[in-house]
From TrEMBL:
<protein>
    <submittedName>
        <fullName>Trehalose-6-phosphate synthase</fullName>
    </submittedName>
</protein>
<comment type="similarity">
    <text>Belongs to the glycosyltransferase 20 family.</text>
</comment>
<dbReference type="InterPro" id="IPR001830">
    <property type="entry name" value="Glyco_trans_20"/>
</dbReference>
<dbReference type="Pfam" id="PF00982">
    <property type="entry name" value="Glyco_transf_20"/>
</dbReference>
C-alpha cells in the first residue's frame, strides 16, 4: 500500500504517549502502513526566512520531519494570518479579523517553504493528507512544483457560509487554493454544503454531481467525515491513579452536590462568558441550586499573543469573580474557574462524576469534549449533555439537550431541566449518544477519509 504523508501545523510524536485522539489515530495509521509526519518543529530560530532547519528523525516506520521557523515567520503565518484572519472568519467573527498584508504574504511564503521541504521527502506513489486552516495553500504550492500525488485536506474548523467566506481579504485566492486538493473533508454536512454553495452562489458555477464540485476549471471531491475520539483510550484513563484519586475526593465533596463541567481552551469561539451568564441566571431563577450545584470551568490559556484572547480572559475573570462575589456562601463557591491545563486523566474523572456536561460554543467545527463526556458516563446513572446547536457535534448528537447559547434565558432553563431529569430519560438519551460516539470513533474517521482519498484517480 502507498505510504501516507501527514502534514499539519504541529506534529504528533510517536516517542511520547499520544495525548489526543487525533495523534493516536494518525500515529496508528502511519505505523501500520509507514510514512512521514511533517509539521512545525515547535522551535523558533533566527535563521533567514525559508531557511529553517528540517529535523528528520526515523521512528520505526514513521519519519518525523519538523521544520523550524523564525520569529517573523511564526508571527505572520501562525499568530497573524492563521489565527487573526482565518480562525475568526471561519468562526463567523469577521469583526475580529485583523487584516495585514504582510502576515498574509508570510502565510503564503511559509506554505511554500513547507511544500519545498516536503518535496524532497516525497515518493511518486505517496498519498498526502493535509490538516487544517494553517495549510490551505499547500496543495497549490505542491502542484506548482509538478507534484501529481493524491492530496487530501481535512478542515477541523467550521466552513463558513459563502457570504462570510467572501468577507475574507483575498477570499477568491483562498477558495482557489482548496481546488488544488483531490479530496476535501469537512466535519459536517452543513460545512460541505457551505463549500458547495460558494461555487454556486459566488462563482456562478453549476456544480456538479454528488460530491464532485467543479470551479476554476478543476474538480474536487467534497464530503463530510465527522471526527471522533479514541473511546477505549479515553475510558482507560479512569483507571489512572490520578483519576481514581480525584474521583474519590470529588465524591466525598459531592454528597449533597452536583457538578456541572465545562472544558475548553480559552477561546472566544467557545462561548465562555455566555456560559457564566447562564449559570448566574440559573442561580437567580432556580435558587434551589444554591449550595448544591457548582460549575467547574477548566479553560487553559491559548494563543495569548493575540489581542482578542487577552480580552476574553479579562472578561471571564471579571464575570466569574462577579458571580462568586454575589452568590458564594462561606461553605460554597458557585463557579470554580481554572485557567490552567489539567491532566487528561483528571478530566476523564471529572467528566465521569459530573451530572451535566455543558458544551456551549458559539461556533465549533466538531467539539471533542462533547464526545469525551459521553464516553465516560456510567451506564447506570449517566449525566446529561447540554450541547450548543452551533457545535458540529450537534448534527450527530441530537439526543443531547440542544441549546442556542446566545439565548441565556432558555439555556438556563435547559440547564435546570438537565439537572432535574429523570433517570429513565437520562439513560435513554445516553444510550443513543453512546452509540454515536462508539460507532463514529477516530479510527472510523481516519479510515473513511483515507479510503476516499485512495479511491481518487
Ligand atoms: C479543533 C476544532 C474539533 C481541553 N482543555 C484541556 C484539554 N483539552 C482537550 C479536550 C479535547 C481537546 O483538548 C479540545 O478539542 P475540541 O474538539 O473541543 O476543540 P479544539 O481544540 O478547538 O479543536 C474542533 C477539533 O479540532 C478536532 O477536529 O473538534 O471543533 O476547533 O480533547 O479534552 N486536555 C487536557 N487539559 C486541558 O486543560 N489534558
Amino acid at each position: 500500500m502507498s505510504r501516507l504523508i501527514v502534514v499539519s501545523n504541529r506534529m504528533g510524536d510517536p516517542r511520547k504517549p499520544a495525548k489526543g485522539g487525533l495523534a493516536v489515530a494518525l500515529n496508528g495509521a502511519l505505523n501500520e502502513i509507514g510514512g512521514v509526519w511533517m509539521g512545525w518543529s515547535g522551535t523558533i530560530t533566527d535563521t533567514a526566512p525559508g531557511e529553517g532547519q528540517l529535523h528528520v528523525v526515523e521512528e520505526g516506520k514513521i519519519t518525523l520531519a519538523g521544520l523550524d521557523l523564525n520569529q517573523q515567520e511564526h508571527d505572520g503565518y501562525y499568530l497573524g494570518y492563521s489565527n487573526s484572519v482565518l480562525w475568526p472568519a471561519f468562526h463567523h467573527r469577521t469583526d475580529l479579523i485583523e487584516s495585514d498584508s504582510e502576515a498574509q504574504e508570510t502565510y503564503k511564503r511559509v506554505n511554500r517553504t513547507f511544500a519545498t521541504r516536503l518535496y524532497g521527502l516525497l515518493q511518486p506513489d505517496d498519498v498526502i493528507w493535509v490538516h487544517d486552516y494553517h495549510l490551505i495553500p499547500l496543495a497549490m504550492e505542491l502542484r506548482a512544483m509538478g507534484v501529481k500525488n493524491r492530496i487530501g485536506f481535512f478542515l477541523h474548523i467550521p466552513m463558513p457560509p459563502s457570504q462570510i467566506f467572501s468577507a475574507i481579504p483575498e477570499a477568491d485566492w483562498l477558495m482557489r487554493c482548496f481546488y488544488h486538493f483531490d479530496v476535501l473533508g469537512f466535519q459536517t454536512q452543513d460545512d460541505a454544503m457551505n463549500f458547495r454553495l460558494y461555487a454556486e452562489r459566488i462563482l456562478g458555477e453549476d456544480p456538479c454531481s454528488g460530491d464532485q464540485i467543479k470551479a476554476y476549471g478543476r474538480t474536487v471531491t467534497s464530503r463530510a467525515f465527522p471526527i471522533g475520539i479514541d473511546v477505549d483510550q479515553f475510558r482507560d484513563l479512569l483507571n489512572h491513579p490520578d483519576a481514581v484519586e480525584l474521583s474519590e475526593r470529588l465524591e466525598l465533596n459531592s454528597l449533597q452536590r452536583k457538578w456541572v463541567t465545562g472544558v475548553e481552551r480559552l477561546d472566544y469561539s467557545k462561548g465562555l462568558p455566555e456560559r457564566m451568564k447562564v449559570f448566574r441566571r440559573l442561580l437567580e431563577k432556580y435558587p434551589e441550586n444554591m449550595r448544591r450545584t457548582t460549575l467547574v470551568q477548566i479553560a487553559p490559556p491559548t494563543r495569548e499573543a493575540v489581542d482578542a484572547y487577552a480580552d476574553i480572559r479579562n472578561e471571564l475573570e471579571s464575570l466569574s469573580g462577579a458571580v462568586n462575589g454575589e452568590f458564594a456562601r462561606i461553605d460554597w463557591t458557585p463557579i470554580r474557574y481554572i485557567h490552567r491545563h489539567v491532566s487528561r486523566a483528571k478530566l476523564a474523572a471529572l467528566f465521569s462524576i459530573s451530572k451535566v456536561g455543558l458544551v456551549t460554543p458559539l461556533r465549533d467545527g466538531m467539539n471533542l469534549v462533547a464526545k469525551e463526556y459521553v464516553a465516560v458516563q456510567p451506564d447506570d446513572d449517566p449525566g446529561v449533555l447540554v450541547l450548543s446547536r452551533f457545535a458540529g457535534a450537534a448534527e450527530e448528537m441530537d439526543a443531547a439537550l440542544l441549546v442556542n447559547p446566545f439565548d441565556i434565558e432558555s439555556t438556563a432553563d435547559t440547564l435546570q431541566r438537565a439537572l432535574s431529569m429523570s433517570l429513565d430519560e437520562r439513560k435513554e438519551r445516553h444510550e443513543a449518544l453512546k452509540r454515536v460516539v462508539e460507532d463514529g470513533d477516530v479510527v472510523t474517521w481516519c479510515n473513511g477519509f483515507l479510503d476516499c482519498l485512495r479511491a481518487q484517480r
